[in-house]
Amino acid sequence: MFLAKVYITLKPTVNDPQGLTIRGALHELGFANVTSVRAGKYIEIQLEEVDRAEAEGQVESMCRNLLANTVIENFRFDLEEVAG
Amino acid sequence: MFLAKVYITLKPTVNDPQGLTIRGALHELGFANVTSVRAGKYIEIQLEEVDRAEAEGQVESMCRNLLANTVIENFRFDLEEVAG
Known about the structure:
Two copies of one chain form a homodimer.
Chain A: E1 2-10, H1 17-28, E2 34-47, H2 52-67, E3 73-81
Antiparallel strand pairs in A: 1-2, 1-3
């Protein structure tokens, strides 16, 4: 069994209104030294799979086909073996 | 200058409809071995701060006061020193 930790971020050139809003709110709370905020997604997926290479291929495919919009987003993931 | 990578996840006992929806969609796409999906947030914050301990305290405070709802969410973060 594997636990995939998937990180999805907007590509650097893509405008991020959510991040800008968070930055504005942080400034209002007094955190004036915050220069940039980028908001992304973090998804944990548990997979019943014994083979690491197979699990990696599947998570890569999940990201490309469903989780990330690869036109505007980048993704990366870590795979951890966990006890079934 | 520091880059904080903040991970916000729902507490294990909290219901996660977004995760369930993603799991359903993955099953429909043929990934039948997915047992659980939990959806969270990933936020990158750049801070103009020279002292690591000070930066850590600030990010902790940002999480508690704005980024995470600590009633239903957990947060953790890594702090990386980056070139200004």
